[in-house]
Amino acid sequence: MDTEFLCLKLSEDQLQCSICLEVFTDPVSTPCGHNFCMVCLRSYWASSSHCQSEFKSPDEPPFKRKRTVANLKKHKLMDPVENLEDYICQKHERPLELFCRDDQTCVCQFCIETDHRTHSTVPIEKESKCIEKKEADSVEIFRALVGCIERSQAELLEVMEEKQKAAESEAEEFIKEMEQEITELKRKNTELEQISHTEEHLHFLQVRVPLFLDSVLDVIMDPVTAHPDLIISYDGKQVRDGDTVRNLCGSSQKFDEYIGVVGKEGFSSGRFYYEVQVKGNSEWELGITKESSNRKGKIKMSPENGYWTMCLRNGTEYRALDNPSVPLSLSQPPQKVGVFVDYAAGLVAFYDVGARTHIYSYNEQAFTEKLYPVFSPSVFNEDEIPDPLMITPVKQCTLNPFM
User: Fold this and answer.
1) Which is nearest to 273 in space by CA: 389, 398, 381?
2) Strand arrangement, sheet containing 336-342
3) For 3-37, b where at least 16 C-beta lie within 10 A, e where not — what string?
4) Domain boundaries, position 22
5) Of 56, 77, 98, which residue sits at a domain end?
6) Whole-angstrom Cα distance, residue 260 to residue 309?
7) Residues near 116 by Cβ (< 8 Å), separated by ≥ 6?
8) Burial group, residue 228, by CB count within 10 angstroms (0-12, 13-18, 19+)
9) What are phi and psi of 291, to 5 degrees?
10) CATH at residue 11
11) Which residue from 71, 197, 273, 285 has the fewest beta carbons nearer than 10 Å?
């Protein structure tokens, strides 16, 4: 174990001059083994009157220079530690002053000359500072990441709060609208209850009849448009299937496959109403059609194709030929059907005249051209000859319940 290592176990008291009480400067030893600074000993030797011993050399005391101890003063001291063995190389018994980056372990000066000769080594202090810097950078990155997450969380919470407030506001507005609608329905229900219990039924009818007297239309069927199988009455008020194709002149207005006929008079404004007797028919179809609607080939009856109609199929199946078609549930088969049209409002409504009930309505339709009544009776059947569809006069007492 060399002198440099021995110095690690020396205390500061062992390196102090007992005369000047400072660390040795040019230390020397006396024959008795005491150590002093050369300057201190010479000064004390020259001024002391207490020493009675004579030295063999009259000129100068036999001082022995302590080169080894002097070198100790230049040696780098280590900070005090509890477990010194942990900081000493177990193989070379030298201080662990270096760090091997290849093996990630602390080594001494002798280690880098042997086992770690080709490895990358740096002073422990440098490696420690490098690690501290990396840790500081990691902490800074972590703080930045935490800050970013906190900001994102705050923004998300703000967006969620705004959406929640908007949803609550919409819900409150919807609730208010529903409450207003419920209030209005209750008011109307109260009025209807009062009207249903009134004894002046004639008054109930008469106050509304004048509003619709001008809506009654005198409908006459146009033979020019009728399918060749159809037979139109002389006055143009009845139509039935004759089961015989007649040689009538061809016309672009005539139906060639659809068993139908339209009215002579069309209209492009105002309101009109007419009634058709449908009893005695297991199948029929009626309503209105626009002037430019197709009348050739197979026709799909729908508003998109210019037809607003309702029908009876197989004797019991009532449908509104909307898109898609709508099944209709009627309490009893209608004997007479009323058709009301309000051109400006885009309304086509059907009513059971006998029961005075509403059947179906096409609402908010966009009419842009003339409209015509359209009729289609049951196909002729030898087992059961159907009655003709008949346009009937409108009585005043039947107007009000539908309007």
Assistant:
1) 398
2) 230-232, 238-241, 389-392, 271-277, 336-342, 347-352, 357-362
3) eeeebeeeeeeebebeeeeeebeebbbeeeeebbb
4) 1-77
5) 77
6) 12
7) 100, 102, 103, 107
8) middle
9) -60, -40
10) 3.30.40.10
11) 197
- pLDDT tens per residue across span 224-237: 999 988 999 999 99
DSSP string, 208-256: TGGGTGGGB----B-GGGS-TTEEE-TTS-EEEE-SS---PPP-TTS-S
Residue 334 CA to residue 310 CA, distance in Å, equals: 12
In-domain check, residue 7: yes
For residue 378, is it within any domain? yes
CA 257 – CA 236 distance, rounded (Å) = 21
Residue at a domain's end among 48, 77, 106: 77
Number of domains in the chain: 2
Token pair belonging to 331 = 């309490």
The DSSP element (H or E) to which 168 belongs, if any, is: helix 124-196
**DSSP 8-state code for residue 366:** -
Closest to 334 measured CA to CA, from 388, 279, 379, 382: 279
CATH number at residue 311: 2.60.120.920
Give the C-alpha separation, 112 to 119, whole Å: 8
Q: Evaluate whether residue 19 is within a structural domain.
A: yes
213 and 73 co-located in one domain: no
Q: What is the mean pLDDT of residues 186-206?
A: 61
**pLDDT tens-digit readout, 324-381:** 999 999 989 999 999 999 999 999 999 999 888 899 999 999 999 999 999 999 887 7
Q: Are 394 and 403 in contact (CB under 8 A)?
A: no
